[in-house]
# Entry
Amino acid sequence: MKWVAAPVALAAALVLAGCTPEQQRGFLPAGSEGATDLTDGITGLWVTSWIVLLVVGVITWSLVIWATIVYRRRKGQTGLPVQLRYNMPIETFFTIVPVILVLGFFAFTAQEQSKIEARYENPENVVEVYGKRWAWDFNYLNEDVYFSGVQVQTDENGSATPETMPVLYLPVDKTTEIRLETRDVIHSFWVVDFLYKKDMIPGQTNYMSFTPTKTGTFMGKCAELCGEYHSMMLFEVKVVDQAEYDAYVASLRETGNTGRAGEDLDPNQANFFGDEAQSENENQMIDGGKN
# Structure
């Protein structure tokens, strides 16, 4: 076995050394590297799982091909090839190894999930996020200010217009808790580069806890089909230094966005086209419900 293991290990090292950075990260988003204190652990679990599964696949297919060649019916032979039954070493191998793999994947997944789901006792920053058809509201609870978003609009090229894009600001290197709520139907809060998403369920508060560790702008979207304009339920997360975050909070306070945008607001307020169009939209929803 040692004469087999050495060449296999060398070949694996050479193959992995030739991988691109994208391949080494399992084709996960490039911006996720170091985005939060959790993304590297998620990436490690993902990539390691694929490597293990790739090795298992190579061994399995090699055995299938080997058995097909060795035990094929030769020229001049008739009837069935030699049949092997009750081979205890082989049967034991194909029983124990899958059990070990399943238990191993479960253990490492549970360990990583426990880190992801753990909540901070005293987070430095708490933001309450409301999903609504088809936009977002952000309540900065520590600062007692809020941002109320509208449905994202597109230009003639189909690109989202920046002035209608809801933006969630977060200070870098601060322990953060996101409280997830919804005003109407089920939504899902997904920041793509954070490699994690969580549903927003009516009547239930869900939580996400993490520490942003890299400044930048990260794309977010609703990941749960929630109606006609689900595809336009977009937002951005801007992770900034404390000074820029404080300036943004001050700008919200100057515009009168103090307090909290709560669950008592009209769930259809996200409509961008004004009162007349909103009223027409409400009538269409009522007619649709009757039908």
In short: The domain at 125-275 is CATH 2.60.40.420 (Immunoglobulin-like).
